[in-house]
Amino acid sequence: MDNMEKNILDKARQYEKNDLNRINSSKSSFHVTAPVGWLNDPNGFSLFQDRYHLFFQYYPYDTNWGPMHWGHCTTEDFVKWEYLPAALAPDKNYDKNGCFSGSAIETEEGHVLVYTGVTVDEDTREVRQMQCISSGDGLDYKKWDCNPVISPQLITEPVSQADFRDPKIWKYDKTYYMVVGSCDEKKLGRIPLFSSEDLKNWNYEGMLARNDGSYGRMWECPDFFEVDGTSVLITSPQDMRKKEFEFHNGNGTIYFAGDFDYQTCEFHHGEARAIDYGLDFYAPQTTMAKDGRRIMIAWMQSWDNKLIPEEYSWNGMMTLPRELHIKDGRLIQTPVRELEKYYVDKVEYEGIELSGITELKGIFGRRLNLEMTVTDGEYDTFEIQFAKNQDYMTTCRYEAETGIFTFDRSNSNIRRDVVGKRSIQVKSPGKRVKIQMILDQHSAEIFINDGEMAMTSVFITPMEAEDITFLVNGSLTADIIKNEICICD
Ligand code: FRU
After folding, report:
1. How many angstroms is it from 181 CA to the middle of ligand 1?
2. What is the tens place of the pLDDT at every residue in 53-103?
3. What is the pLDDT of residues 235-247, one digit of tens each?
4. Model pLDDT, residue 1
């Protein structure tokens, strides 16, 4: 380790250590949260020596984005996390302006991290992004001398030199593969595919997917994996334009389902769909669990909405990890089943009739799993009003005839002109619908009809706002279950 490297990483490790000793009651209890300062994308989500590791884009010194480090945490069950010292700092000539997003894999050489080294020329302001490697023992990592290992020059068609980032690595047979987020000279997203036998020398295999202009501009943070026999490419496009209920303006997340052939390296896929329809979900990344489940986690924030108050010492959370499946060519997402181990104080109402406004005994709180299955009824709309007191209320509202489902945080203490509301169209409208909602202080992750659609959003209201009420226009019959979620030691 040269001195520059040691100093910058040590400084970050010392800084976060001091802060970790501070009790910070505003933090979520089972969502990964910035230890201190700023957090964005999940990085290096992987299994190494029997534990799951998650790294993240991290700037410990400020609650705004800054020169990127990699923060680090680990878990056995995707719910209870232990924070480790920062793993990477921008301390080499080839990454001096940031260690941007990337991924990780367990190899014979240890835990290998693949990330984007960013440099900005001081005179010309020209940005260069290249893929780099670091490996370690699950705690300390060393950047390889051969860095950077992939530059955009490897690609045999014109691509941007400045937007070439977020490598996702995997192994198939004896070969390593990597997809990278990039774009052409017109800023239209491109996902180049590379392969290597030794992690040091990489070949360009072709363009896995191209943006024809339908899905935003630059494509960030790609991931490519197989689930239930289908190949899935996920990516996070910048500058999306709204399309009916499917896509919203700004940064979005999309997936393509299709078939991939390792012989030709061609990916045949259909139309893109949104991954999550909420207000705060970006840059998802997946890993494979020990038992073969495909697990996805994402940054629970959007670049355009900053809601965390200035007085907090941290800014940024991850979603709860989710299990992925494919059904009829569509992605199905459900919260990791391990969460159920932490359910306490179950309250259950079976076949309860609701009309007008109702409060149910035992149903309240801000750290819980709430499931409402509407089985029958004569109603036009119903609402679940939560995180509520006389001053605040967050809601979701379902309209039976059209299947329009709306999340609304505009009465949730928002002091800026950020997006407060979003509507989606449930796949099969009608009176019967199932809503699962996971609250963890500042966030609501909503899964509709057993994970057919997911909607993730952040809202910041005082913890005392913890009432839950049901408002039905008409009457309905439902089964309602609530479990508190307790991450006790
Ligand atoms: C996505 C992203 C990545 C980049 C990182 C920088 O949110 O813009 O493309 O690597 O954030 O922090």
Report:
1. 10
2. 999 999 999 999 999 999 999 999 999 999 999 999 999 999 999 999 999
3. 999 999 999 999 9
4. 44
Those residues with Cβ within 8 angstroms of residue 122's Cβ, 6 or more apart along the chain or in another chain:
none
Measured between alpha carbons, how far is 416 from 411 in angstroms, rounded to an integer? 12
Instruction: Count other Cβ atoms within 10 Å, centred on residue 34.
Output: 27
d(CA 401, CA 380): 7
pLDDT at 93: 96
Cβ neighbour number for residue 326 with a 10 Å cutoff: 18
Please identify, by atom number, the ligand 1 atom nearest to the C-alpha of residue 41. Answer: 7
396 CA to middle of ligand 1, Å? 30
Selecting among 41, 166, 276, 408, the annotated active-site residue is 41
Helix, strand, or coil here: 156? Answer: coil
Q: Above 90 in pLDDT, residue 412?
A: yes
Does residue 24 contact residue 34 with C-beta atoms inside 8 Å? no
Cβ-in-10-Å burial (0-12, 13-18, 19+) of 67 comes to middle
Residue in the structure block whose two tokens are 């391990």: 338
| Distance, CA of 470 to CA of 382 (rounded, Å) | 7
Distance (Å, whole) CA 225 – CA 460: 34
Residue 374 CA to ligand 1 centre (angstroms) = 40
Contact 116, 101 (CB under 8 A): yes
Please return the burial class of 394, using the count of CB atoms within 10 Å of its CB with bins 0-12, 13-18 and 19+: buried
Length of the chain: 489
Q: How confident is the model at residue 25 (pLDDT cuts 50, 70, 90)?
A: low
Q: Which atom of ligand 1 is nearest to the CA of 165?
A: 10
Token pair listed for 339: 């969460």
Question: In angstroms, rounded to a whole number, what is the distance separating the alpha carbons of residues 352 and 331?
Answer: 31
Whether 62 is catalytic is no
Sign of torsion over alpha carbons 156, 158, 162, 164: negative
Do the beta carbons of residue 64 and residue 353 sit within 8 Å?
Answer: no
Q: Can you tell me the distance from the alpha carbon of 390 to that of 236, in angstroms, rounded to the nearest whole number? A: 38
Residue 26 has pLDDT above 90, yes or no: no
Give the nearest ligand 1 atom to 101 CA.
10
Pairwise CA distance, residues 84 & 70, whole Å: 11
CA distance linking residue 235 with residue 257, whole number of Å: 12
Give the residue whose CA is nearest to atom 6 of ligand 1. 100
pTM beyond 0.90, yes or no: yes
The two beta strands, 273-274 and 254-261, are antiparallel
429 CB-near residues (< 8 Å, 6+ apart): 400, 401, 402, 403
Q: Cα 12 from chain centroid?
A: 24
Evaluate: CB of 221 within 6 angstroms of ligand 1: yes
Which residue's alpha carbon is nearest to atom 8 within ligand 1?
A: 220
